[in-house]
Design brief:
The chain is α/β, with parallel strands linked by helices and about 220 residues long. It is built from seven helices and eight strands. Helix 3 links the parallel strand 3 and strand 4. The model has no long low-confidence stretch (mean pLDDT about 95). An eight-stranded parallel sheet has the order 1-8-7-6-5-4-3-2. It starts with a strand and ends with a helix. Helix content is about 35%, strand content about 20%.
Length: about 220
């Protein structure tokens, strides 16, 4: 099984996004991960719409968007129109999460369910049939560079065991170091959001790092 390597573009060099996109694609990444924050659901602001639109137009690989916002359903059509292929929404602040996930599917994108570290498997199992991807946050959402919260491993194990039954892929977001990528790939995690722990701000080029992560 090929692991999905997805650079978190919040960590990229915004001085030359065109160069960043090109070099990451040449390195062989699978999906561009785009974070949207409203300063309400999480205490930070994410990427601007102009940056996201630029990346989706430049990219030749799929783009996903992680909506860390209130009323995520209001923005589904906007991002689908931009060309985003996977939309992650949170169950924690959406009383009608099943409607939102179905809305994403009906709009022609893949439905992604993002879950915070404190969200249990039991609280989401009824809606897993609607999810094409489950994005497990191993840090509190909103900021890069945080430490991995090891207690999510138990939830990851359950999600990996049940993914064939429900039909989703398991993705991990937060402190995805090379060592953790190697360990958790063997346990069934399908993809990793790459930030400062494995990809950005390193002495090596993207073209050197991505093949190394593939071989782990």
């Amino acid at each position: 099984m090929k692991r999905l390597l997805c650079p978190s573009m919040m960590c990229a060099k915004f001085g030359n996004l065109e160069k960043e996109v090109k070099e990451l694609e040449e390195a062989g990444i699978d999906i561009f991960h785009l974070d949207v924050m409203d300063g309400n659901f999480v205490p930070n602001f994410g990427m601007g719409l102009q940056d996201i639109e630029f990346i989706t137009k430049q990219a030749t690989v799929p783009c996903d968007v992680h909506l860390m916002v209130t009323k995520a359903s209001d923005y589904v059509s906007k991002f689908v129109d931009m060309g985003v292929r996977i939309i992650y929404v949170h169950s924690e602040n959406d009383p009608h999460i099943t409607r939102t996930l179905q809305m994403i599917k009906d709009a022609g994108a893949y439905a992604g369910l993002a879950i915070n570290p404190g969200t249990s498997f039991e609280s989401i199992k009824e809606i897993l049939k609607l999810a094409d991807y489950v994005l497990v946050m191993s840090v509190n959402p909103g900021f890069a560079g945080q430490k991995y919260l090891a207690f999510v491993d138990e939830k990851l194990k359950l999600l990996c065991e049940k993914k064939t039954h429900y039909g989703y892929k398991v993705m991990l977001d937060g402190a995805c170091s090379p060592e953790r990528i190697e360990t958790l790939s063997k346990k069934g995690v399908d993809g990793f959001i790459l930030g400062t722990s494995a990809l950005f701000g390193k002495d090596k080029t993207y073209q050197e790092i991505i093949p190394e992560l593939r071989k782990l």
